[in-house]
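Email to the structure team, subject: Threonine aldolase family protein model.

Hi all, the expression group asked for a predicted structure before they design truncation constructs. Nothing fancy, just the tokens so they can compare against earlier work. One-line instruction: predict Threonine aldolase family protein, return tokens.
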Amino acid sequence: MTDTTTGTDEQARDADGTAGPQSPEEAQRLRRINAWQAAERVLIRPPMNLSLRERLAALTAGAGAVTDLDRPADIYGDGVVAELEERIADLLGMEAAAFFPTGTMAQQVALRCWAGRTGNATVALHPLAHPEVHERGALGAVSGLRTVHPAHGPRLPTAQEIRDFDEPFGTLMLELPLRDAGFVLPTWEELEAVVAAARERDAVVHIDGARLWECSPHFGRELPEIAALADSVYVSLYKTLGGISGAALAGPASLIEEARTWRHRYGGQVFQQFPAALAALTGLDQELPRLPSYVAQAKVVAQAMAEGFAAAGAGWFRVHPEPPHTHQFQVWLPYGPDVLTEAAVRQAEETGVSLFRKWYPAAAGPPGVSFTEVTVGPEGLEWTAEDVRDAVRGFVERLG
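Reply from the structure team: attached below.
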């Protein structure tokens, strides 16, 4: 599941890839996309929803500012791709970094390498972590790894849970933030304690940092200090940064050298990747410095949403977490997802305001409860709290 407001996987599921005769489902999807794209007021306008012409124009406009465009294009990871790897390693304070076409591959390789080095193929991670929910059992099916779950609540594991877990594991994987639990983070002190507990068990620590870029405000720490807690870190180059695709794995030079070998074996030694590398470099220059402002504004938006639902008499609702830990959070309401999505589309069509996008049924719990993910980007900085409350009122009116 992914967020249609973030430029991540959910949006990919709603991207317009239709051709020829349309099924009713395809027609409805296209209607949603058209409504969101035409809306004048949005909290974020995901780059992936742009047309090919717009995407290419944006790439060309930003590329000249991040590298010399007269240099040769990359071949099998040199040139601008190597430049991006050096930039990532420096940003995270790591010895080296390797570019991967996908985060799924990057983490497969990292965890496989650590299994070989520790002699233990068991990975401890949260059951809501990305490999367990969104990768079709790839860690076991492809890499021969085994996963165990030291914690089960909608939060990261505690230090005591790591210490008390009743079987050995070679690697502890921490997803920061834990997206499917609501983009939640521990406190800095809790994170330090969890890492220390893993070290006590002679386990290495790997951070799934697909959205690590926006964690600094919550922790009150810069990226190198956060990354230094772990033995390796994966970061996404399109989630948050607005890039085209790709990921990076950072860590000790010897690990990254081994990871490059496995990247080739896994089919990730791509001939040329300069569009993704250029888009990532542009995102690092343009979006990374603005993330603290998005995180701050998300707190304003979340509080105003809660006030708006209460004032509109919406009944039970939940904004989670409150306040948000990053610039993303969940909203829960006691309606079916189709009802809520239709209200969101109608609001965009009738008023030009797109507050919410697609809604989803809860994976567990009582029927008739749905949630959506909200992301605040540059467009969201223009909203006042009153703007949000007014938009919530308009949304609730369309639920009747």
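The first helix runs from residue 9 to 14. The longest strand covers residues 204-209. Ping us if the truncation boundaries need rechecking.
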